[in-house]
Amino acid sequence: MNEADALDLEQAIRDNYRLWNEGKREELDRLFRTLGSDGFTIEYVGSPALDGAAAMAEMWAEYEGRHRDAAKPGNPKYCRWQADDPPF
Hints:
- The structure is a single chain.
- The chain is α+β, with helices and mostly antiparallel strands and about 90 residues long.
- It is built from four helices and three strands; from the N terminus they run ααββααβ.
- Helices cover about 45% and strands about 15% of the residues.
- The radius of gyration is 13 Å and the shape is globular.
């Protein structure tokens, strides 16, 4: 069984927010690669889907140091992600 097979979706969502808020970029990237091993997209509300890795890098650069502000509804850049081949 690989890491994706054992992944608990609820825990992954909690880990996503925790890692973002703790400023742990490498661990967050690893989580996204596990969730979307064949790639993923990120959609800002009202905008077309973007390549996930590139969008994450841009989002991190823009919000680094203000981690909590980027990942909550009401922010103009609030987003959702979609794994290209989800493990669940």
